[in-house]
Amino acid sequence: MTRTQSLLINGEWTAPASGHYEVINPATEEVVGLAPEASKQQVYEAAAAAREAFTTWSRTRPEERAAILDRAADIIRRESDPYTTLAQAETGATTGTARGMQVAVGEARFRRYAKGALEPTETAIPPQINEAGPMGKAGIFGALEVRQPVGVVTCITSYNNPWANPSGKIAPALAMGNTVLVKPAPQDPLSVFRMAEALTEAGLPPGVLNVVNGRAVAVGEAAVDSPDVDMVSFTGSTDVGRRIAEVCGRGMKRQLMELGGKGAALVLDDADLDSAAMGIGTTFSFYSGQICTAPTRVLAQRAVYEPLLEKLQAYIGYMKVGDPTAPGTVVGPVISAAHRDRVESYIELGKKEGARLVAGGERPPLDRGFYISPTLFADCTNDMRIVREEIFGPVVVVVPFDDEEEGIALANDSDYGLIDYVWSGDVSRAFRIARRLRAGGVGVNTIGRNMEAPFGGFKQSGVGRDVGSYALHAYSELQSVVWPG
């Protein structure tokens, strides 16, 4: 577990120019391994290697790309146990989450895009009859829409899931014939290097996938501003996404951005409160609230406001906080001491803003690890910072409302618009409200997702859509081919 990791550049495991740093287990504060610190020049070299490999890889037969992705999925399944152990150590996820929602999802996404590599990339457009004129003779013109790979794609991944998030970028990008430069989150990069090892063993040619890493801002900047990079796919905070977009804009680079979220959960007066409480309660447990799709901003209609608070408070009482490797643990640590401090500063801010602390708000009595007790605030208003800003921790805020129109207005009064939720016993009512919410996705009586449905945000929650075939579209450019009949 204390392995010293190298960079992957042009098919070679390369010593980092700036040394190594310790990756810390957030549950035990022990060293998991030594992660590499790339130099800016090494990032540029990796991007250049991807550029050189693009000409050949983009022209490989789809069946060949599919076979490599399928073999990578086989290797991930074969190595599931050690990969799960590493992912859990890096992230502090519970065993079930590390196995089922991290490594298993990584495998599933490589399987999905092995099939995706075989999806049609050409679509016929109905012929058009043109009269004679300045553009030439009269005739019937056929046309074809062709999806072409973008080129070199930089994938900058998030720390909350070092398997699902990177695989959701790497697999469709490779399936479409792009070459890839990966910059993992510095908090837990080692799992991404295991993914790269699986792809290398599966037969991915040198330079098609390159992995660099580092805590220095310059490493990420180089991965974005390299002249060899055609597109940037980023998952992370809106502030960082804004800076990346500025650089991409100067070079007209394509972007796919999944940014922050502050999901509104409208709980209407006819809702199944047990179902709503269970859905909202996952915020406390799932990745310890470190997930942009969490229903962290609860809007409860007056008639069910206090009963819902009681159920959420009771839900917290059932959740065991502690060692994520121990049976029965529901809530593990947050990713780092620095992030724990940030979440705790929001909890203190909520108290100062006048919100009522219903549960939590303190550190659990554990000797080590970066833990925060699940925290529930009531009597909040939409102008409070704890309601408006993404906390990214096990904190839920509850705002009361009177009627549907007020609830919809409160939900839309946000800088974010990733995923919202509606709980109602009347499905037609719920769907009617869902259509009025300014969010990229809406869950009706569920926090579940359809993994073929487009995923992305409105407003400051991002640009573009991925998941399913939409990810293949995201990593491609449209080309028109026209000919006379």
Secondary structure elements and pairings:
Elements: E1 7-9, E2 12-14, E3 20-24, E4 31-36, H1 40-57, H2 62-78, H3 80-91, H4 95-116, E5 122-130, E6 139-149, E7 152-156, H5 164-175, E8 179-183, H6 190-201, E9 209-211, H7 217-225, E10 231-235, H8 238-251, E11 254-258, E12 264-267, H9 273-285, E13 297-301, H10 302-318, E14 320-321, E15 329-331, H11 337-353, E16 356-359, E17 375-378, H12 385-388, E18 395-401, H13 404-412, E19 419-423, H14 427-434, E20 441-444, E21 462-463, H15 469-474, E22 476-484
Parallel strand pairs: 7-8, 7-10, 8-9, 10-11, 12-13, 12-19, 13-18, 14-15, 17-18, 19-20
Antiparallel strand pairs: 1-2, 3-4, 5-6, 6-22, 11-21, 16-17
Helix pairs in contact: 1-7, 2-4, 2-6, 3-4, 4-5, 9-10
Structural class given helices, strands, pairing? alpha/beta
| Count of runs of 4 or more consecutive helical residues | 15
Helix content: 25-40%
| Beta-strand proportion | 15-25%
For the record, the CATH class of the largest domain is Alpha Beta
CATH superfamily of the largest domain: Aldehyde Dehydrogenase, Chain A, domain 1
The strands making up the biggest β-sheet line up spatially as 16-17-18-13-12-19-20
How far the N terminus sits from the C terminus, by CA atoms, comes to 64 Å
